[in-house]
Amino acid sequence: MTQLATAPPSGGRHTKRTKPHRRFDPLPFLLLLPTILVLLAIQVYPMFYTLVLSVQEREPSGWQFVGLKNFEILLDSRQLGESAGHTLIFLIGYATLTLTLGFIIALLLNRKSSLSGVYITLLFIPWILADIIAGVVFRLLVLPDYGLFSGVLQNPALFPPRGLSILTADAPRPWIGEFPFPPSPAMVYLILAATWRALPFITLLLLAALQTISNELIESSRIDGANRWQIARHIIIPLILPTMVVALFSLTLGGINGVGMVFSLTGGGPGTSTHVLSYLLYSIGWVSLDFGRAAALALILAAINLTLIAGTLRITRVQQRSI
Fold first, then answer.
1. 183-192: b or e for each residue (b if 16 or more CB lie within 10 Å)?
2. pLDDT in tens, 26-61
3. pLDDT of residue 92
4. N or C end of the chain, less CB within 10 A?
5. Cα–Cα distance between 295 and 300 in angstroms, integer?
């Protein structure tokens, strides 16, 4: 008789299962390869090349290693401090004016109206223009003799004693040491032009946040006796504050790194009154052809950008925890 095999008892030793061997599938990597190559070409390689250039200096015999000399020259130069002051003035005026006007216009557009779509479409027109084109348009408006506003600006009765030429007027004497405040007329005009250019995006961003607020919440606060200012201060602004932080972050990064508007509108002038950090980078790199010092300044700007990004992320996380 054939002896039947009996199953091992439940408490017996079980055989060890082997995990199935997974074959490497190269298809996902091959699909991502074009994107990886593009990122390496336009981001990773320029970053490492900038690091290499920042510690070198161009000599007739070729590139020479100079260590941190380029950074020392920048930090000791008057140009960097002056440009940093101009950048700070520009950012404060540009971000404050854009956020304030964007919030007011978003509140107006948030009201139910049959023409809201038309208004939003017209508002979006400046955003589709390039910085260079917007700067040229604003420059043509104030050019002497044939600018659209030249008749008003050059009127001695309005701007004594000989009228006002925005693109050539000298900056007022600084109030505090060498800090460039009050700004020159060209800097004020640059802030207005940059605000006009960035206003559509910020307005639509805030409008999208306003439309997430419940109407019942607003109506109940009105029934409780809150006026418009109290509703805006204690209800609307706290609820859209994360979006406002994102908008401020976008404005700050764009204001620090943008050079097209300065290049086409003022050219950094008159004198150096609109010489912001981004235009200083352009001047050192492409006018003076000092690529080592320009690379060092680019790394300084990158450090400022990373600091702003880290600060914004930290603020956003704190706000998310408090909600």
1. bbbbbbbbbe
2. 888 888 888 889 988 888 888 899 999 999 988 877
3. 93
4. N
5. 9
Any idea which residue has 């509140």 for tokens?
107
Task: Please provide residue 263's backbone torsions phi and psi, each rounded to the nearest 5 degrees.
Answer: -60, -45
Give the pLDDT of residue 58.
82
Cα 182 from chain centroid (whole Å): 23
Q: In 3-state terms, the chain is what percent helix, strand and coil (to 5)?
A: 65, 0, 35
Residue 120: in which H helix or E strand, if any? helix 116-123
Q: Which residue has the tokens 């070409």?
A: 41
For residues 167 and 270, is the Cβ–Cβ distance under 8 A?
Answer: yes
Please give the model's pTM, rounded to 2 decimal places.
0.83
Q: Would you identify the CATH topology of the domain 78-322?
A: MetI-like fold (1.10.3720)
| 12: its two tokens | 């017996």
Residue 2 pLDDT class (50, 70, 90 cuts): very low
State yes or no: pLDDT of 24 exceeds 80: no
| Paired tokens of 235 | 């209800």
Cα distances from 186 to residues 103, 277, 303, in angstroms, run 26, 16, 28
Sort residue 265 into left (φ over 0), alpha (ψ -120 to 50) or beta.
Answer: alpha
> Where exactly are the structural domains of the chain?
78-322
Tens digit of each residue's pLDDT (9 = 90 or more) over 170-203: 888 888 888 888 899 999 999 999 999 999 999 9
Which residues neighbour 210 within 8 Å (Cβ) at sequence distance 6 or greater?
Answer: 106, 107, 110, 236, 240
Length of the chain: 323
Pairing of strands 62-65, 56-59: antiparallel
Round to whole Å and give the CA distance between 100 and 144: 31
